[in-house]
């Protein structure tokens, strides 16, 4: 799957842009604050229907305008598909953040929901902030896991939403109900549902972690020339080991809730379940979050992202589109070389932003297209 063309109008700092893209490698070069990340965000927005950068998508409309328009033509299985996305402010109010945004998605001229896009088109983003997958709080790792799994397994997304809805009801009872006996009675209504959905999430995450572990381990060995072995393990607060038995997970979940009922009432929160889980990454046996250097952590994330490409390819039959924002400068020459070699060998359509063209040798330059970005305009090199 690859972009053939992109057009942007009044999007971020691009007033008007129209580009023909390379099916394999596209490099965006430019100084700081010229629009490199904006362009990557825009391309991703076209295939995802939402921004990976902001929740306030109104911000993507070029300042002073009432709407933005994004268009992409994508080739998938030898078919050209056109996606058009418009972001429009319902009214132009004094207070920008009070404006309602109307987002319209069209696939081949038919209005569609975001879910239709997500089913058809896949993308993997790797940006500097993703270092937090290793260093950050557990919530960020859960978010990473949930996003990755949802992308290849739509049922997971459905169950995840249901789980959080049930959890919300349950926490509400714990927070609001005063009568202790009533709390316990009411919890009993929600527990079976929480356990059922929650156990499914735990099991799926364990399987996913094991799978990505095998792939990431191999990539990581290659990138580090066999110097580093990584290992990922899922940490459930319900299970001792990474069990793949749904009946056992169910049972353990139920036991934990029963054992800690008093404590939950006292603390007024649901203390066990996948919403409190985490995963750890080890490099040569040491926890990467505590002992890994920034470069090592970055490389782990790269290995995870490359694994994600493979998992999507396995599921969909085609590689997703790969977006690499500002990550070249943080990898040493060997690692950069490996990465670019892999992208060109596998013919994954990739968009790379960089301040410096020197990170790409002449051989690579011949394999793709290089665009220079200056103040929201493209200068073809
Ligand atoms: N809605 C917007 N309208 C106009 N300009 C914007 C908008 N959003 C961001 N920008 C501009 O885009 C610039 C950042 O572009 P970005 O793509 O992040 O830079 P870089 O090339 O360093 O990746 C900011 O300096 C800002 O001026
Ligand atoms: Mg940037």
UniProtKB/TrEMBL annotation:
Binding positions (ATP): 30-37
GO MF: ATP binding; single-stranded DNA binding
Record bears the keyword Cytoplasm: yes
Subcellular location: Cytoplasm
Gene Ontology terms: biological process: DNA replication; DNA synthesis involved in DNA repair; double-strand break repair; SOS response
RecF/RecN/SMC N-terminal domain location: 3-372
This protein's UniProt keywords: ATP-binding, Cytoplasm, DNA damage, DNA repair, DNA replication, DNA-binding, Nucleotide-binding, SOS response
Gene3D superfamilies: P-loop containing nucleotide triphosphate hydrolases, RecF/RecN/SMC, N-terminal domain
Xref: Pfam families: SMC_N
Keyword presence, Cytoplasm: yes
GO cellular component, one term: cytoplasm
SUPFAM superfamilies recorded: P-loop containing nucleoside triphosphate hydrolases (SSF52540)
Role, per record: The RecF protein is involved in DNA metabolism; it is required for DNA replication and normal SOS inducibility. RecF binds preferentially to single-stranded, linear DNA. It also seems to bind ATP.
Family as reported in the entry's similarity comment: Belongs to the RecF family.
Name the UniProt record assigns to this protein: DNA replication and repair protein RecF
Organism expressing this protein natively: Candidatus Sediminicultor quintus
